[in-house]
Amino acid sequence: MTAPTTLPGLPPGGTDPCVHCGFCLPSCASYLALGSEMDSPRGRIHALKAIEAGELTLDATVAGHFDSCLGCLACVSACPSGVRYDQLIEATRPRLNAPELRSPAQQLWRRLLFGLLPYPARLRALLRPLRSYAGTPLQALVRGMGLTKVLGPQLAAMEQLLPPLSPDSFSDRLPQVIPAVGERRYRVGLLLGCVQRVFDPAVNAATAQVLAANGIEVVVPTDQGCCGAVTHHQGEEAQTRALAQALIHRFNGVGPLDAVLVSASGCGHSLKAYGRLLADAAPELAAAAAELADKAVDVQEFLARVGLTTAFQAGLKPLTHPDGCPASADRPLTLAYHDACHMLHGQGISAAPRQLLQAIPHVRLREPLEQGVCCGSAGIYNLVQPTEAELLGARKADDLRGTGAQIAVSANIGCSLQLRRHLAGLPVQHPMQVLARSFGAGQAT
Ligand code: SF4
Ligand code: SF4
């Protein structure tokens, strides 16, 4: 079969504003990892122009240079000419899924990931036998002896990301409604996330706790599935639409909501795109998708917007240092906030999480040098491009360690797993966990 030479769906004139200045290159994670022009935004835009002009065929080699893109969107933030690379790569991704553009092994691996990650019940069934392995000395021994290498690079990468699994990983324990503490200010829905609820369920618990303590009633629709972010960012259109439709149905059945809150930035980015994603669906579904997209708000963004209550702020107490001493004015606790790409570049949120963290007494925020550069997680990137992801993860870990932080803070599950894998010895927590911990300390005293 011949590969397509054109790219249907590419926004007309979308590549025109690129003047090939290269200002985007220093922020491009794939360029930093691979050092080749073809693996940079400028090189890919050049390739798109050539494909559109009929001068280049989208074959497996060219497709490989698009597959090396993390979709982190740092180039969109960096571009002074307003090139919407986000729209270009979103339109290109579905074309990369043509069977002739990837090897049978790559296609099988992707099918396995897309058949597993968006479905918590399947993921839990697979992980159940690994409970006595994940986070135990046996896992440390296996890793220490390098035995995971026999699994091959992709499976080894997956094993390296595997966190300890708590009983909470295997069932959704949050009640359907978590009442507001004190007077109810808002009623919101909470998206649990497919990977987050399994690999880091404490984030959802902390999020609900912080919201409720701020006078916000939290509704957790039962049997909610994946929002489709995992497949959306890989151009798997049909599966994404099916997942989105099912989720819309779940949230529609819980009564009026002031907002639908998301504590994983990759999910928030996709939820906010639902209106566009389902614009050509049946009118009722298209309207419901647009409504959900309008209500989708990142949890940090929401809390910064509505403000923490006076009572909550009064309950925030200093966090403790690793030696058990509480942070103080003389000895603050240093946090480094890691910007998830789909939060910073995808949703334009950077001040809100920092503002919330600085509400905690005696916290000092430090910024990594390469603040807007991707950590190499990027959805399934670290599972399908493990070599590049490894380089980027190590680079980001060095940068975060260089801040002198005692806690790295990340508001995206994919980044958190990637950072934990590379930041051994340095805790990685979600902003909601850090806030809940500070508030919990306040409650206990
Ligand atoms: S995408 Fe923007 S920053 Fe990058 S080369 Fe083109 S015009 Fe320059
Ligand atoms: S999305 Fe990220 S990895 Fe892809 S070209 Fe832009 S900066 Fe580079």
Structure commentary:
46% of the residues are buried. This protein has 24 helices and 9 strands. The strands form 2 sheets. The chain has a 5-stranded mixed beta sheet. A 4-stranded parallel beta sheet has the order 7-6-8-9. The termini are far apart. The chain is of the alpha/beta class and 445 residues long. 49% of the residues lie in helices and 8% in strands. It is globular. Among the domains are: 25-101, no CATH class; 308-444, Rossmann fold (3-Layer(aba) Sandwich). The chain binds iron/sulfur cluster (SF4) (2 copies). One iron/sulfur cluster binds at residues 27-30, 41, 44, 69-75, 85.
Topology:
Elements: H1 29-34, H2 41-52, H3 60-67, H4 74-78, H5 85-96, H6 104-116, H7 120-127, H8 137-144, H9 153-161, E1 177-178, E2 186-191, H10 194-199, H11 201-213, E3 216-219, H12 229-232, H13 237-252, E4 259-262, H14 265-271, H15 274-277, H16 283-295, E5 296-298, H17 299-306, H18 310-315, E6 333-338, H19 341-347, H20 351-357, E7 363-366, H21 381-384, H22 386-401, E8 407-410, H23 413-422, E9 428-429, H24 431-444
Helix pairs in contact: 11-24, 13-16, 14-19, 17-20, 22-23
The structure holds iron/sulfur cluster (SF4) (2 copies).
One iron/sulfur cluster binds next to α1, α2 and α4.
